[in-house]
Amino acid sequence: MKAMVLDAPRRKLKLAELPMPQPAAGQVLIKVHACGVCRTDLHVVDGDLADGKLPIIPGHEIVGVVAGKGAAVERFNVGDRVGVPWLGYTCGTCRYCASGQENLCGHARFTGYHLDGGYAEYTLADQRYCFAIPDEYDDVSAAPLLCAGLIGYRSLVMAGDAKRLGLYGFGAAAHIVAQVARYQGREIYAFTRQGDAEGQQFARRLGAAWAGASTTTPPEPLDAAIIFAPVGALVPQALCATRKGGIVVCAGIHMSDIPAFPYSLLWGERRIQSVANLTRRDGEEFLKLAPQVPVRTATETFDLTQANEALARLREGKITGAAVLVPDSARVPTSALSRRGAQQ
Ligand SMILES: [Zn+2]
Ligand SMILES: [Zn+2]
User: Fold this and answer.
1) Which tens digit of pLDDT belongs to each residue from 2-49?
2) What spacing in Å lies between the alpha carbon of 196 and ligand 2's midpoint?
3) Which of 1, 186, 246, 326 could be disulfide-bonded to 181 (CB atoms 3.0-4.6 Å)?
């Protein structure tokens, strides 16, 4: 099978021809139809995250079809469509696993980081961490739901009942969260890089009440802010924009250092909270909610072999919505492969 492989940090991914993976007990073999490109993949490629497996096939927003299964797989049959998220394994017995916080498990293993992921024609996954994909979504549209959607959803839950919600960094996750938040009757304040008129317009198209540069103050104080951009300097900026008793949620797995800031910004019972990936429960809740909203994902597709180009465009902030890789073997008619727009 073809796969895009990272041999060492800060290198380009290399196209490789690898033997077909064989499912062990409890695993499904998945023919990959689409795999989203997430900012975390950039952190994996850049070596920002410690202790990953190398070489590794990145990719943790996988949509495909079960093509084979190991012993004792009872949740899925050959031919079923499944999705694979970042959380690929947990121990099931530690205090976190036992209390519904499996995302904090010290033995957790993550797709495309510890476990080979979806930048390939085929991949393996532990059946217990796969999700059924709602019929309303085609493969490409569903891919961004599996990380941008799931982690965005967990971040939104952390924001509590905030009515005025700030979103810092209007990329793949924010464009999904904005739709869910609007459905829930919240007001969206979208913050982008300075001068990103296209990003601000995209946010307004998705129903944002206001959109502006992250350095500016919104017209009304926020009840909560979610920071998707991996930029520590946004934390004091978001605190500045948030009312007393409000919360600033940091949704990313990696962020540059947070600069020192006066205690007065945190004073007034403001809180800062990080979000560590997802639980299977988040996945089930979100994948049930998404078609009700209905969440529509804006995607830009790339051939599997163009993974480096997709990563470069994401790094430069040039992707509107989410980038999705499609293996040549899974190609759908070209008309469906052009840029899709999210509409409300
Ligand atoms: Zn555990
Ligand atoms: Zn991700």
Assistant:
1) 999 999 999 999 999 999 999 999 999 999 999 999 999 999 999 999
2) 23
3) 186
Distance CA 237, CA 144 (A): 28
Measured in angstroms, how far is the CA atom of residue 106 from the centroid of ligand 1?
Answer: 6
Instruction: State in Å: Cα 45 to ligand 2 middle.
Output: 13
DSSP letter assigned to residue 167: E
Distance from residue 95's CA to the centre of ligand 1 (Å): 7
Angle, vertex CA 157, rays to CA 154 and CA 161, nearest 5: 165
Handedness of CA 22, 24, 28, 34 (dihedral sign): negative
Cβ atoms of residues 177 and 316 within 8 Å: no
Q: How far is the centre of ligand 2, averaged over its atoms, from the C-alpha of 148 (Å)?
A: 6
pLDDT interval class at 331 (50, 70, 90) = low
What pTM value is reported for the model?
A: 0.91
C-alpha Rg value of the chain to the nearest Å: 19
Could you identify the residue written with the tokens 């050959």?
78
Residue 251 and residue 131 in contact, taking contact as beta carbons nearer than 8 Å = no
Ligand lying closest to the C-alpha of residue 117: 2
Contact 256, 233 (CB under 8 A): yes
Ligand having the closest approach to the CA of 103: 1
Cα of 51 vs centre of ligand 1, distance in Å, is 18
* Ligand that lies nearest to the alpha carbon of residue 109, given by its number in the listed order: 1
pLDDT over 50 at 288, yes or no: yes
